[in-house]
Amino acid sequence: METGKYIINDYLDELSSKAAVPGGGGVAALSAALGASLASMVCSLTIGKEKYKEYEAEVIEIKQQALELQESFLKFADDDAHAFLPLSKAYSMPRKTDEEKAARSQVMQQALIAAAEVPFNLIKTCTATIEMYEALLTKGSTLAISDVAVGAEMIITAASSALLNVYINTKLFADKQSAAEMNQTAEGLVKEIKERLGNVIEQVKIKVKGS
Amino acid sequence: METGKYIINDYLDELSSKAAVPGGGGVAALSAALGASLASMVCSLTIGKEKYKEYEAEVIEIKQQALELQESFLKFADDDAHAFLPLSKAYSMPRKTDEEKAARSQVMQQALIAAAEVPFNLIKTCTATIEMYEALLTKGSTLAISDVAVGAEMIITAASSALLNVYINTKLFADKQSAAEMNQTAEGLVKEIKERLGNVIEQVKIKVKGS
């Protein structure tokens, strides 16, 4: 079943089971989708308000972008499930003869690269939300300012979780240089996401916390 | 509609809209439910495995606890939605005469306390997951070690997000001492959650990251 068609209770039941998917990769993607959806909500609560009229055109654009990102993130949850199957098949390939071992290793390496690319691309897509949140900090309705921060929290968690899912795959790459490069690039992106969205969250905290 | 009956796509559509609920409070609760569900998944993948036989009884207990927490967290999402309605009603009460102002203020203060208690209790419940994750770090299947960290990430995000939702309500408390006390207690709990689950995540990172 595609993630998008799950009833939340059923999804949680399936998640809690020993079924191979969904797992941490799917949850990371869903977390990002929730984050993008909250950004869209903040836009929805801002559009049409006299107080924010000067930002209206920009906020309408941000909303469109947030909705597109929400859809992309949800697709990553399905991609994650799809990437797991070939990996699982590769693991169960025979490995008695040298030929079998070589064939298994080749299939597995391809499956590992494909499996690592899903969380890697999820992280890349998370970076596309940064400017959106930074803009909403000043241009979104102050009534929904805490939701800007909750959305940013969900994106940080999605990216941090995806990084772990990059690691568990790159760790088994035969090509250690590719593994190190992918890890480094992903770490750099996650660092930027944490710093800039962390800053958004801090600024929201200052605004919402009473003296 | 109760959160637990939502199809994920429909939930995201409703979330992204300007409807009063769900919002950041519901997402915080859902995030915690996803975290508890992942803890249960790790248990499911551990139970019955020869390698972890010595921990089996304990892991079965943790799974039961995780499933109960998953249900509690999902209930907080509905509680959050229910707490919003009286607050919204209080806002729209008349405030022309002094009597009306006083009546409105009293109703609003009660609604604010009720609205603050939902994220406050969510944070408290999040602390109940800490020992669970610490135990799974060594007693859960190493095949699902990254999921332990993703689960811990979801709980940290849930608690941090809930803290913002405590703030937006306590900020408007007439009783400033109660507000400060609730903030301080919540901050202390969130600090403990971040430190101890942050430590779990760091230890997972060391295990899953290749050299």
Question: How do you describe this structure in short?
Answer:
With 211 residues, chain A is an all-alpha fold. Chain A contains 7 helices and no strands. The longest helix of chain A has 36 residues, at 56-91.
Structure, explained:
The structure is a homodimer of 211-residue chains. Chain A is mainly α. The radius of gyration of chain A is 20 Å and the shape is elongated. The first copy, chain A, has helices at residues 8-16, 24-46, 56-91, 98-127, 130-139, 145-170, 176-208. The termini of chain A are far apart. The mean pLDDT of chain A is 94. Chains A and B meet through helix 1, helix 2, helix 3, helix 6 and helix 7 of A and helix 1, helix 2, helix 3, helix 6 and helix 7 of B.
